[in-house]
Amino acid sequence: MGRVVLFAAGSLDGYVGRDDDMPGPLFDWYANGDVEMTFSDPDRPFRVTAETAEFLTDMATRVGVMVCGRRLFDITDGWGGVPPNGEHVVVVTHRPADDWPHRATAPFTFAPDVPAAIGRARELAGDRDVTVSAGDVGGQALRAGLVDRVVLALVPVVLGSGRPYFGAGGPPEIQFEDPVVVQGRRVTHLVYDVRR
Which of 42, 70, 159, 187 could disulfide-link to 29, CB 3.0 to 4.6 Å? Predict the structure, then answer.
């Protein structure tokens, strides 16, 4: 069985987006290199440094399913029905998107809570990894002991306020192993395995 990986870009002061939910400078590093790549959607290319491309390619090839919350699903309009990473998306929501135009054809599943979403994602992923979006859903998964690894793309910016990386209230005290560090341009990739 693969890992459950909480993955997102974050600011030095611990935010994954501004108060208006937009990433601002947190995604600038997706356009500052010479290597063009995508995750699973070839229509969404980005350009990163060689170091970042090698790191992301290694991580992305292991991902089978992504878990996100309804807020991110709504902001992106469900990525037009195409998973941004992996082959399937599980959305945590109490409001299934019955009127979403891609509902009948997109590889998206809707789950009522984080444990159910992670469980379904693991079934769908098989021996591949599951990524979980940071924020409220990622924080709930971490607090519930469902996350094996945190991958933080640390961006050298202070946002001052916004959406916290681990959601409202933050996680309880959790210890991690020493990080793997990959330096990109305007981003430092940090990989922390949860200490068991």
Answer: 187
